[in-house]
Amino acid sequence: MMSHRQCLTTVTALILLHALSLVSSTVMSRADRITSLPGQPKVGFQQYSGYVSIDKKKQRALFYYLAEAETKPISKPLVLWLNGGPGCSSLGVGAFSENGPFRPKGSVLVRNQHSWNHEANMLYLETPVGVGFSYATQSSSYEGVNDKITAKDNLVFLQKWFKRFPQYLNRSLFITGESYAGHYVPQLAQLMVQYNKKHHLFNLKGIALGNPVLEFSTDFNSRAEYFWSHGLISDPTYKMFTSYCNYSRYVSEYYRGEVSSMCSKVMSQVSTETSRFVDKYDVTLDVCIPSVLSQSKVVSPQQVGETVDVCVEDETVNYLNRRDVQKALHARLVGTRKWAVCSNVLDYELLDVEVPTINIVGSLVKAGVPVLVYSGDQDSVIPLTGSRTLVNRLAQQLGLSTTVPYRVWFAGQQVGGWTQVYGNVLAFATVRGAAHEVPFSQPERSLVLFKAFLGGNPLPEEF
Fold it and tell me: Which of 19, 91, 136, 161 has the most beta carbons within 10 angstroms of its beta carbon?
């Protein structure tokens, strides 16, 4: 039996170990602190960025960027943002083009007046390895990457990141993302819920998914009706696109390298009528969106006879490829000469897109994790009609009653979109006038949506 003195000695040792680990983590996080980004206006909040090793043996590391909340960061939640692709950068797309505090303009950064760090501490993760500044020293680590590997790596990242930033450990945590993050986010959240059964580490309070891929055939095949209802294709082409070769069949054939003559014929006609001069991510836009916003790896493979016409100037790519910027971010290029928006070294298992994640969303709702699915209503790539159908079907399967009937919501004295809530735990919302990248195309409305989501509040019913 331990004596009183031995007991005290053990307690003292544990306290010392805890104190030392706190000091160690403080030193590590301090090393990641960004003094100032080149061309950045003066701000009152802290920024951090750097690497978290997820596999020292194979030297695999994920790059993150943290923009703390503009005011009272200690009292505000932590939000992890993931972009899609798979293989597109949360730093370049999410942070510097959508909902981060700055946007590159020439040689400087300008403030985003509707940045989500008004309401939360925003953590952007370039995942999986091979995306953006995230790297592995062995090129074999970029091969055969799939959803399962990505989810596990993201979980390890968070576990290690919390050791570096222990002040966030008990903070409310939300995970958000868009497009193929409809796979990333629910799969990560599911691992967190499972992990919490043994070790309560993650204070997960909800997930939000923007224009997400949740169920391959429903999401992809809603594109035909969207094209037709918005006048982008003719009646005969709509009939062909829904009976002879729908979009999910075309994508399945495309990624198996065996496009049938029928699908080739249908897609050629669809491409001709929709026109390469219409942005499929925002069908009402009459100017090009920079290539930085094309999260098109899986959700929109190059169509038959279609050439890619990207903007000449891509401010984010230029900015993140500057040596002084990389130095300020504590970033480095490994195995590649240039930072790219969407990875050209990553070999992802593209057929994972066919595995539904809507059932995982259902398990999260059952576990009491609030879920918001939101859709920019000008996106034809993952149209709102598919997402709304899936959410409604899930609510019925789970036996959830409608707690907020389908209605408009407001932002800035205008209709911000429409919303419906089921069982106060599953919600769907549209964002009026928004594209595939909602915070980029409707920054003010997206911030209103985001604030309501964090607070667990219904979207505003009046001005």
Answer: 91
Tokens of 1: 């039996």
379: annotated active-site residue: yes
Residue whose structure tokens are 């497009």:
179
Query: DSSP assignment of 37-56, as one string?
Result: -TTPPP-SS-EEEEEEEEET
Q: Are strands 426-431 and 371-376 parallel, antiparallel or unpaired?
A: parallel
Out of 179, 252, 343, 446, pick the active-site residue: 179
Residues lower than pLDDT 70 in the chain: 1-27, 286-313
pLDDT tens per residue, range 1-54: 555 555 555 555 445 544 554 555 566 778 999 999 999 999 999 999 999 999
Helix axes 147-164, 4-31, angle to 10 degrees: 110
The pLDDT value given to residue 295: 54
Q: Hey, CA dihedral for 86, 87, 91, 93, is it positive or negative?
A: negative
Distance in angstroms (rounded) separating the CA atoms of residues 19 and 108: 41
Count of residues in the chain: 463
Candidates 158, 54, 151; CA nearest to 357 is 151
Q: pLDDT, tens digit, for every residue of 379-398?
A: 999 999 999 999 999 999 99
The single residue listed with the structure tokens 């001069």 is 277
The Cα–Cα gap between 53 and 107 comes to 31
Residue 427's DSSP bridge partners are 372, 421
Residues 6+ away with beta carbon under 8 Å from 163: 21, 25
Comparing CA positions, the residue from 347, 338, 270 lying closest to residue 302 is 270
Name the E strands within 118-225: 121-126, 135-136, 143-145, 173-178, 204-210
Domains with residue ranges and CATH for the chain? 47-215+353-455 (3.40.50.1820)
Report the C-alpha gap between 318 and 341 in whole angstroms: 11
Token pair, residue 83, equals: 């972009």
Give CA separation, 2 vs 13, 347, 437, in Å.
Answer: 15, 56, 61
d(CA 39, CA 47): 15
Q: Is 166 within 8 Å of 22 (Cβ atoms)?
A: yes
pTM: 0.91
397: Cβ–Cβ under 8 A, 6 or more apart, which residues?
362
- Tokens at residue 168, please? 């966030």
Check: CB of residue 317 under 8 Å from CB of residue 339: yes
Show the beta-strand stretches assigned E in 56-189.
60-67, 78-82, 102-105, 108-111, 121-126, 135-136, 143-145, 173-178
